[in-house]
Amino acid sequence: MENFTYHNPTRIHFGRGQIEKISCEIPAGARVLLLAGGGSIKKNGVYDQVKKALGARVTHEFFGVEANPDFDTLMQAVALARREKSDWVLAVGGGSVLDGAKLVAAAVPHEGDAWQIPATHGGAITAPPLPIGAVLTLPATGSEANGNAVISRRAIKEKLAFYHPLVYPRFSILDPETTFSLPERQVANGIGDAFCHVIEQYLTFPAAAEIQDRFAESILKVLIDEGPKTLASPHDYDARANLIWAATWALNGAIGVGVPQDWATHTIGHELTALHGIDHARTLAIVLPGLMRVQRETKRGKLVQYAARVWDLHEGSEDERIDAAIESTRAFYESLGIRTRLSDYKIKADETAVEVARRLAARGETAIGERGDITPARIEEILLLAA
Amino acid sequence: MENFTYHNPTRIHFGRGQIEKISCEIPAGARVLLLAGGGSIKKNGVYDQVKKALGARVTHEFFGVEANPDFDTLMQAVALARREKSDWVLAVGGGSVLDGAKLVAAAVPHEGDAWQIPATHGGAITAPPLPIGAVLTLPATGSEANGNAVISRRAIKEKLAFYHPLVYPRFSILDPETTFSLPERQVANGIGDAFCHVIEQYLTFPAAAEIQDRFAESILKVLIDEGPKTLASPHDYDARANLIWAATWALNGAIGVGVPQDWATHTIGHELTALHGIDHARTLAIVLPGLMRVQRETKRGKLVQYAARVWDLHEGSEDERIDAAIESTRAFYESLGIRTRLSDYKIKADETAVEVARRLAARGETAIGERGDITPARIEEILLLAA
């Protein structure tokens, strides 16, 4: 096991009716910037619960944070927060709203160009960000319990991630009932995204980190068991609760400490979103099976373990078990309604493979993955396998 | 899944050489009370590393915190801290030193009788405790990452637990190498204690909490796999690291949220320590197999799951699998060198069974366990099975 530091300061309030805990978490004298997305929270009752919990606190609302939150949109929220002297940010929504809240919270006290925050991956944050609270309405990204955010800037075709220990939400509220009304497609994407978050931290090379490995396998198995259940029965409280709690643990830091990490599937997937507008989770489903095939030698030890412990594959040769595990992974995504081939999206694999490899090479991403051995040539190979 | 709040604010520095992180964690101007046990840290190099990391900080040392830390001893440390105006407590040792540090940190600013802190299970804490840091040298209790402490007061034959959210250590340092020199008996006790911590939160009735269940099973499997390895090869870094990290997760709150909990094994075990001076972990090994037998109907669902997922028992009838799982549990403790029968300790089961039931009844503990159905009669039955 490698040395590590683990710290997750977010307080989670989980369950039915927990939105009322906002009234204990945010001081009565706070000036709150409420950040939200497109307005669905006004239809499903979340907004009313939030307003009731906020009570007489001075609150200013900013609706309109889009999927893949845009820097320019968020700067309007920053201007509002500065004008109204907001001293708390309350994010109500999914991962995009939560990620956006992290940028807003850091940008409000930031002197100079706030784009430097994502441009330096968080290094430019020097003034303490505003405290953040969150009401999560879409399980997927883990943003409710980590210090990560991904910010897009459409005006200059950029999409950058940043991290800072001071942008973990102070508290996050996870009420499964608030997610019952989500469209099936978004729930499926959330399951697929969380699954890949675990894989990126787990499917590398053995590092003698038994708790991290078994926790990762636990989360994968819960997603495999509960994902189809919650898609089939969106109002099954327990299935949805298990999905939400699994998605939080998929990216709250616990399984990633002391072990190598990959993230090449995300890096390649981001390009497919940028080039073709494919949903983030769907890009991961396209890339992952091919990446497992191309990296089968460097990932062999973990692939065998994954086959046995996650998919209960114990028969046949090592290579047969690995092949079966890769096909099980693809079949799992397909079972969620997430197509795994570029042709499913009417995309020509050969052209896209070349273009993605070129774009990543141009920005210096020529040696990705846990061993830095995923070169542009391998990226092409991976995407050709997804034809 | 039941509603819950989860929050664990402790920052963990894990690995070789991490003691130096003290210099980043405790402010340079702090006045530190260093709390320790019997002096083994001066033999194994831990003390020297701690002193080097503390550098020029004003430090006062209090050695002599005993196993099952005693209130009267700790009050001497409180007097020292008050006299020297300490504003940080640094615990260097195992669970007893860490538990003691929590009482000291809460007692220093407490007005009135500090015994009220354990006597009210923490409710009497109103003044913010001093911040606590910890260097853990014995994996077992999980005290390095929770807000729990158990305090004895030999003068009045009491032993009481308290909890408070403000006595979680701010940081804890877990360096596996500092534990290599531990006596085998203490390491075995640590494994056995951590195992029972998991069981008390897991082996109840099904609550549709899949992450919590699978994480619990993960920790049990790691203890089963790594425990014997680290006893056989105390200098095997990875085996010891995995044990330590497993013991932390066994009682840091993660597996206990949203589920019923038992703790009857601990309640009964404490009496065996009080009456016969048996090591805490050994009392658990005596009580647990009998408790599983007596409670087999109310715990049936989870016993079957435990048999399958932890012990890979899939053959035979449900009752045969349950029996095999209970015997596997007993055999596991025995394999650690922890004897599981009262006769191994030269104790007459019939007399002790009556006496323990009487003592617990006298203090109102007449309906313990996750369903409150462990009565004095059942306690007798449990202990007679350990004859």
From TrEMBL, chains A, B:
Source domain of life: Bacteria
PROSITE patterns cross-referenced by the UniProt entry: ADH_IRON_1 (PS00913), ADH_IRON_2 (PS00060)
Coiled coil: none
Annotated transmembrane regions: none
Any one GO cellular component localisation term in the record: cytosol
UniProt keyword Oxidoreductase present: yes
Keyword flag Zinc-finger: no
Domain Fe-containing alcohol dehydrogenase-like C-terminal: start-end pairs: 193-359
InterPro entries hit by this protein: ADH_Fe/GldA, ADH_Fe_C, ADH_Fe_CS, BDH-like
Keywords for the protein's UniProt record, in alphabetical order: Oxidoreductase
Domain Alcohol dehydrogenase iron-type/glycerol dehydrogenase GldA, chain residue ranges per copy: 9-176
GO molecular function, a single term: butanol dehydrogenase (NAD+) activity
CDD domains: BDH
Entry's family note: Belongs to the iron-containing alcohol dehydrogenase family.
Protein name: Aldehyde reductase
Gene source species: Termitidicoccus mucosus
